[in-house]
Amino acid sequence: MKKVLMPLVMVAILALIPFVGVQYAGLSYLFGVIIPFAAIVVLLAGFLLRMADWMRRPVPFRIPTTCGQEKSLDWIKYDRLESPAHFWEAVARVLSEVFFFRSLFRNTRAELHKDANLAYGSHKWLWLGGLAFHWSLLIIVLRHSRFFFVMVPGFTDFLDHADGFLDVTLPTFYITDAVVLAAITFLVLRRLMDAKMRLISLQTDYFPLFLIAAIVVVGVLMRYVVRLNIMPVKDQMLRLVNFSFDAPGEIGTLFYVHLFLVSVLAIYFPFSKLMHAGAIFLSPTRNLSNNSRQKRHINPWNSAIKFRTYSEYEDDYREKMKKANLPIEKQ
Amino acid sequence: MQWQVLRMEVMMKSRKLLWIVAGTAIILFALLNVFRKGEAETPRAAVAGSVAIDSAKCIASAAFMRANHMQVLYEWRNSSVRTGNRVHIASNGSKFEKSLNTCLGCHSNNRLFCFNCHSYANVKPKCWNCHLSPMETP
Predict the structure, then answer these.
(1) DSSP string computed for A292-317
(2) Domains of chain A: which residue ranges?
(3) What does the pLDDT look like over A141-190, one tens digit per residue?
(4) So where are chain B's domains?
(5) pLDDT of the residue at B51
(6) Contact state of B67 with A228 under an 8 Å Cβ cutoff
(7) Which of A39, A138, A327, B123 has the greatest count of CB atoms below 10 A from its CB?
(8) Distances (CA, A) of A210 to A100, A108, A184, A245
(9) ipTM above 0.85?
(10) Mutation test of the interface with chain B: which of A144, A230, A236, choosing the one with the most B Cβ atoms within 10 A?
């Protein structure tokens, strides 16, 4: 239980830091300007460094995991997505993973039934929960562009409208707010309910979940319960986007909690499992085409092999071979 | 034998208890209903006489209004349209009519009073779906 409680306590402490700092110590400049800028720098630099590090790693051979017919003879139909033979098929495979989590769709679960019967079955809840969670987060992040642009891009306006189309409650209720909270609850419970999952789950699995949950809860609180004056918030966000270091105006403390937790997430991102966001594009078991039969892949760092031909051998040992009455090709 | 007697006794007691609980619940419900009706009717009576609109000051502090004006308007719409309560009593006791005109009585000098901030924050209120906005009035 310690590995569940520790991240929870850490998130609570992280949420308290800006609350105390702004409410009682008046450190709004630190939490409104310095830390967000530092977080952006760490996120961008860390993300790029890790991606560069991974991209520098050599992948000399084709090691895609396949689960379909490989391309061979023309009259044998091959599976373009499961065993891609060309670059664009591999691209389609990666993108279908990024957007629809196809490999999770194949998730199975083993259960030990009564009288020791082991049963396997399709288990799509992780796929559904993960998809709901990631898509909601994406829409929520895109919706936030109304704080970062003076003229809000049209498609986020559309997203905003679509997300709030239920048109209930006063600041219009966003569907993704509920979906992301439901999904994150499920994803946490999934790790807690099953003994096997509990065993393999680590602090680093729970911490980002709790952190994102805290960010969402604070955001939801600001929108629906404890209302803030939104004008200085947008002022401050536009300043950040324009690299202005001016001090923020009078903003409610809850905003600083939200911003600080997002900053923590951004700083944590490059050092954690959250890097799967970039890594999924670089996974060699998924982004390579399975074309070993069409093209010979030579390991680039193999040193050149010095071959010795038979005629060279014969040149070296001709006299000895003659003495031993061995047949020789060249007299 | 004794056990059966005890069981009968318990049953009688629980039946009695049931009657008492049900009775109290019904009485409470009735009382509550009477009082709620009374509450709903008092402001209606007050509306009959015209309300003095003090337009020299706002209904709440600027800081509160900046963050919560939408909530106030939402509450005004619901209570005035649905229960007919058209009197807003501010925290200092002064009374206002629950109407957009109360707001615009003071704030109409700037026709962009609503639109400046709403377009800046990209918030699209639904007020002007029905109401005439200050931009549309001459």
Answers:
(1) TTTS----TTPPPP----HHHHHHHH
(2) 2-323
(3) 999 999 999 888 888 889 999 999 998 888 889 999 999 999 999 999 99
(4) 50-130
(5) 46
(6) yes
(7) A39
(8) 24, 26, 9, 31
(9) no
(10) A230
